[in-house]
Amino acid sequence: MLKEIKKRDGSIVAFDSSKIENVIWKAVAAVGGQDREGAKKLAEQVAEMLDKAYGDKKIPHVEDIQDMVEKVLIENGHSQTAKAFILYRKKRQELREAKSALGIDDDMKLSFEALRIMLQHRLLKQKTEGRETPRQMFERVAKVLSKADKKFEENAEETEKTFTELLCNLELLPSTTILANAGSTQQLSEGFVLPLEDDILSLFETLKQAAALHKRRQHSFGLGLSFSALRSKGSAVGQNGFGERACGPVSFLTLYDHALSQINPYGTNLAFLSVHHPDIIDFITAKENLKLRSFGTSVLLTRGFMKAVEEDKPYKLIDPHTQQAVTTLRAKSVMDMIATIAWRTGDPAVVFLDNLNKAPTNPFGHELITATTPTGEHPLFNYESCFTASINLARQVKEKDFDWDKLKKTVHEAVHMLDNAIEISPYPSALMKRAIERTRRIGIGVMGWADSLIALEMAYNSEEALQLAQKLMKFVNSEAKEASIKLAKKRGTFEGHKESVDTEKVRNASRTTVVNSGVISMIAGCSQGIEPYYAIGYMKRTPTAETFEVIQPFEAVAEREGFHSAELIKTIALAGSVKWIKEVPIKWRKIFVTAQDCSIDEHLAMQIAFQKHTDNGVSKTINLPATATILEVEEIFTKAYAAGCKSVHIYREGSAEQLMYAHKKKKAVV
Hints:
Blueprint: E1 4-6, E2 12-14, H1 17-30, H2 36-54, H3 62-75, H4 79-102, H5 112-120, E3 126-127, E4 130-131, H6 134-146, H7 148-151, H8 156-168, E5 172-174, H9 176-181, E6 191-194, H10 200-214, E7 222-226, H11 249-263, E8 269-274, H12 280-284, H13 286-290, E9 295-301, H14 303-311, E10 314-318, E11 325-330, H15 331-345, E12 349-352, H16 353-356, E13 371-372, E14 379-380, E15 387-392, H17 404-424, H18 430-439, E16 442-447, H19 449-455, H20 463-491, H21 518-524, E17 537-541, E18 546-550, H22 552-561, H23 566-575, H24 586-591, H25 600-611, E19 621-624, H26 630-642, E20 647-652, H27 655-669
Parallel strand pairs: 6-7, 7-8, 8-9, 9-12, 15-16, 19-20
Antiparallel strand pairs: 1-2, 3-4, 5-15, 10-11, 12-20, 13-14, 17-18
Helix pairs in contact: 1-2, 1-4, 2-3, 3-4, 4-5, 5-21, 6-8, 10-11, 15-26, 17-20, 20-25, 25-26
């Protein structure tokens, strides 16, 4: 009886006949077949023929087994199924060739996109014997991060094993900065907030610091800078009587944008300005008018401004140099302008300053946070940075529920991992090191939310999903705090604890952040952050071919439930959504919703549900259809503020293309 087979890499593994049944069933389902029992019988026939041909003395190659499958399908009159299987083999061969072209030894059987993104973001390091494999990358990261335990006389070897298992199982992934830089002389944090003072020398000193931080050209690195302290355009400068006038924050924003985009074309930065600044109108239109390349924009909205909007009253513009009111504007008109430009271009985003500065986001009552990371969800003090990781929720589901015990352990290890990252990270300056150790702020987030809902057979845009989101994040938040309390008992509290409003002794001032997990989600092979899938199917074009693809969770369900077919895949790929495709059972049409299938309120409700139990902010795009109105954008802002969100970012379908066209038109006119 056949016991072993030889894989393509030459290794010998145990023979598993169930894998033959699975590939035959996939071929059957691809042509619309539903006879699972028939697929099983064909697989048994293949196994019998293999026994006769090889027995327990010879070891067949995997290609020999696949040749045998083709032979059995054809001999039994299943020509269409055989064709589907041949196409499957061809597709797998093309994938192996594409991976091989990347020059990576894929020792974890990751997707081509995962491997490509690892190369693009320089995550795999060159070694004497060649490039790191994905598994070696994770082993490197685990080894480096576990070393911090030695400082506290903890078991670093055991921690290394735990971290390695979590990383290699794709259950927990830290930021790409940690993946790329662990073990090097580069910092492990992915973004800083730098101060901008109303002083020409200070402004250029900050630009120098920003340039130094960006010079490594990391794809994921970015800065947050608040321009609110800079005096307004046309204000008097100096006291020598020569009549010098300030050029204003927007002019310096343009300078910073030009300089930093030259140093790091891949960098992303976020500029902030208070809605009370006299130059606020120029700032609101900056993204559209100035064609900023490396900066997004975000307006800091205060409680006073939001109240003035609600009551349709004027509000004051304050000179940041004299702190005196210089004029007033109608709050509703300014809000309308913010909403209009955001509707047209996606920027500016809005940050709610008072919500941002509530504990535990801001543990110090006497100090104000006025900026965040470039993605908007991680508020930071000046010189502070962030260390983040995301838990893959798709790997936490067990028997139609979350495995809460497993999730608890994962959360505790996530806190442990990021606190270690703070401990061992090199820092660009002593000032930044002190700022980070003062709060030891970390951000434990989640990804794979859409995948986990599909596994739980729950619609993303259902009340049931919103309730689960709150329950889940409350659990993660609570366990993250418990883990931080335990760490504090062994390692001590964050350095600023005595001056903070926190009554409990925790190691980290704030602990949870739902980050934008785009890159690490691709590596983990799961849905991004807490977003729904943008599309269930899509068409891939290459110079030589055109293929139709659907997301893996849909393909798995379609095959399991017996409604998979090549024609259906093509239909979905062209449509993007399954909402109106009658071949998909109604139950699954409701579960496999896309971003476009969700209403504006449903998108916002999900962000609110997660924000209720998140220390810092929540990264979530509020997707709007092309037909959305400016009034609807304004309503998003007011609802998000009232619900306690830290910030909100909208994207209306087609607005990016509209901005690009406007810039091209303006350039042509000039």
